[in-house]
Design goal:
single chain; alpha/beta; 10 helices; disordered N terminus
Length: 276
């Protein structure tokens, strides 16, 4: 770790510079993404089934953490499920029905960017579910998750937290940044205004649905980079994967170009103009 520039009194600063910290973050993220690629090969080879549930406060960094997980792996193995609000038809179904169809088959990792726990969070606070429905959910969801684990699925649940001050800063950045404005929904504003109601709902949810088969893991996320590294490191430590050697193929020789076939696909065709 860099000790920074010496102070005027001759002593070295213990603070790591921003540039050094960012470089360290990138190195560690790259290392973890290599491990995720090893995990991917193991999942495909063994037919393992993995569910990663990401819940937490709005603007706590769930999306950013998920993006770093899937950035260097195949979307055919790592599937991200981020369901919209239920349709009128889905509202008449058994609550878990819309989630069950997205559960992993052999050789898949399914990442839920919010999950069935919507019932204990947004649906409770915003009045989209009755007290009876919420109580039934909190009572039954541990049994549902135990069923998944007994069937051989690896289930990991992460709850990302963020302070009020940091959430406010992130919402203001979204408001002022055109490339972030899509992240700010009416539900986000409602969650900001109902901070303590969400606190109460989340506290009960975490207390009643934390069980040995699928405990909750809390990820403090005021520091986004640290949260990403900590979360990815932890999930890798919880899965008993092995590094399976890569069987490198031989490229061999290209076939001969037939007579009359142009050397490239560009020749004689409309080409997108260069803008860079």
């Amino acid at each position: 770790m860099s000790k920074g520039k010496p102070k005027k009194d001759g002593t070295a600063s213990a603070a790591e510079s921003k540039a050094d910290r960012n470089a360290r973050y990138e190195r560690e993220l790259e290392r973890l993404q290599v491990e995720l690629s090893h995990l991917q090969r193991w999942v495909k080879s063994t037919g393992a089934r993995i569910i990663l549930v990401f819940e937490g406060r709005d603007a706590a960094g769930k999306g950013g953490t998920i993006r770093r997980i899937v950035e260097r792996v195949s979307p055919r193995v790592f599937r991200v499920v981020a369901l919209p609000a239920p349709s009128d038809r889905e509202k008449t179904q058994v609550f878990a029905q819309r989630y069950m169809q997205h559960l992993p088959s052999g050789g898949e990792v399914v990442i839920f960017d919010r999950s069935w726990y919507n019932r204990a969070g947004v649906e409770r606070v915003m009045g989209f579910a009755t007290d009876e429905q919420i109580e039934r959910f909190l009572h039954e969801v541990p049994m549902f998750e135990q069923y998944l684990v007994r069937d051989g699925i690896i289930l990991l649940k992460y709850f990302l937290t963020v302070s009020q001050d940091e959430q406010r800063k992130r919402f203001k950045r979204r408001i002022g940044d055109p490339v972030r404005q899509w992240k700010l929904s009416p539900m986000d504003i409602a969650s900001y205004q109902r901070w303590w109601r969400y606190t109460e709902a989340y506290e009960e949810m975490l207390r009643r649905t934390d069980h040995p088969a699928a405990p909750w893991w809390i990820v403090p996320s005021d520091d986004k980079k640290a949260a990403r590294i900590n979360c990815i490191s932890h999930l890798l430590s919880q899965i008993p994967y092995e590094t399976i050697p890569f069987d490198a193929p031989q490229l061999g020789e290209r076939d001969a170009r037939p007579e009359g076939i142009p050397d490239t696909e560009v020749e004689g065709r409309r080409v997108v103009p260069s803008a860079f």
